[in-house]
Specification:
By secondary structure, the chain is of the alpha/beta class. The chain is built from 16 helices and eleven strands. It starts with a strand and ends in a 7-residue tail after the last helix.
Length: 392
């Protein structure tokens, strides 16, 4: 039996840990070629000892030195920084690259993997939001493949497989609505602890906050465009608090085809890592009779304006999607650091979009990265003059 080897970029994060669970459950069908993380060298070292990859790399130079000492004599190579991440993304022995680094930090390694002709299991939506044209073109030119890992996009990928796109009227992405969908009253006094309390999924801090603002769904709409080639007016969002239906196709004859599974990221990760095969997995199964009611609601754009802001940024084009993503990353971190009100996250992003985005058609990588840097600087300045959260 041939082993399929995976480079896991972002191995100490939520998606990375879930992917390694899938490897553990594979019975030897999956192996690890490389592991890459940020500064959590202790966890990275433990993963390296368990999975024995050829390479581990830490973005933080200090963490890489500690990692080197910890793994001395194991035969595992240790690298650091952007160069190490590039090596992990393009390693010859990797059959598939799981891109699970959070935020714009995933752009360059995802693009490197695409240019190397790799099969990419994509869990870094921000890379397509900011540089979707560049990455999808690189995948086509180098003969690789792009397999979505986000539960919604993986569901749509499965539903669309082998189907004539002309039969599809719309793609439907579901959103849980986050922790505040049923909350009465305003959101000005929301704390990071409140926003991190997601009702359905266990995710990292940044994605959890994006889910609470609905920015996550806005980013996913843009991602869906690049993955499936449909214009945004044919990509709809519906709130589904139970997180059982992950995506649906509205067909031209009026039928609706839906994908259901438990809210467990190991299921779409496994679907991507084993593609095009399906394998038996030891995870929870759905009991339709026990599910009870499945609810669906339209998004409340007045209360959660991030979704419409994402549609508008994509419609503008140029560097606007990259600016949207970068400004949001800065504003979310400021909220997590208690330097910004929850409702000011979207205010900051909208302001930075208006002031820094440009309309240049098909921006190249240098332009995108410059726009990202300018947006971060503008957002950081805007955060400094924004009202802090109320206390008490």
């Amino acid at each position: 039996m041939e082993i399929r080897r995976v480079s896991v970029l972002g191995s100490t994060g939520s998606i990375g840990e879930s992917a390694l669970d899938v490897v553990r459950a594979s019975g030897g069908r999956l192996g690890v070629a490389a592991l890459a993380a940020g500064s959590n060298w202790r966890r990275l070292a433990a993963q390296a000892r368990e999975f024995r990859p050829l390479l581990v790399t830490a973005a933080d130079e200090t963490a890489a030195r500690e990692l080197g000492r910890e793994l001395a004599g194991t035969g595992v190579a240790v690298a650091a920084g952007a160069e190490g991440l590039q090596r992990a993304a393009t390693l010859a022995s990797a059959d598939i690259v799981l891109s699970a680094i959070v935020g714009a930090a995933g752009i360059l390694p995802t693009l490197a993997a695409a240019r190397a002709g790799k099969t990419i299991a994509l869990a870094n939506k921000e890379s397509l939001v900011a540089a979707g044209g560049l990455i999808t073109a690189a995948v086509r030119e180098a003969g690789g493949a792009l397999l979505p890992v986000d539960s919604e996009h993986n569901a749509l990928f499965q539903l669309l497989s082998g189907r004539d796109a002309a039969e599809v009227s719309r793609l439907v992405l579901t959103a849980s609505g986050g922790p505040f969908f049923r909350r009465d009253g305003g959101l000005d006094d929301v704390t990071p602890e409140d926003a991190l309390r997601h009702p359905s999924w266990s995710m990292g801090a940044k994605v959890s906050i994006d889910s609470a603002t609905l920015m996550n769904k806005g980013l996913e709409v843009i991602e869906a465009h690049w993955l499936f080639g449909l214009p945004l007016e044919r990509i709809a969002v519906v709130i589904h608090p139970q997180s059982i239906v992950h995506g649906a196709l509205e067909m031209t004859d009026g039928a609706l085809l839906a994908h259901l599974s438990p809210p467990d990221m190991r299921i779409p990760i496994a679907a991507a890592l084993y593609h095009p095969q399906r394998v038996a997995l030891p995870w929870q199964r759905l009991d339709l009779a026990a599910l009870g009611t499945l609810e669906f609601f339209p998004p409340d754009h007045g209360r959660f304006p991030a979704l419409e802001l994402a549609y508008a940024a994509f419609a503008r084009g140029g560097t606007a999607p990259a600016v949207l993503n970068a400004a949001n990353e800065v504003a979310v971190q400021a909220f997590l650091d208690r330097r910004l009100r929850f409702t000011a996250i979207v205010e900051v992003v909208a302001d930075v979009l208006a002031r820094t985005a440009t309309d240049q058609e098909s921006p190249d990588l240098d332009t995108i990265m410059a726009a990202d840097a300018a947006a971060r600087a503008a957002a950081a300045e805007r955060v400094r003059i924004s009202p802090a959260p109320r206390r008490g």
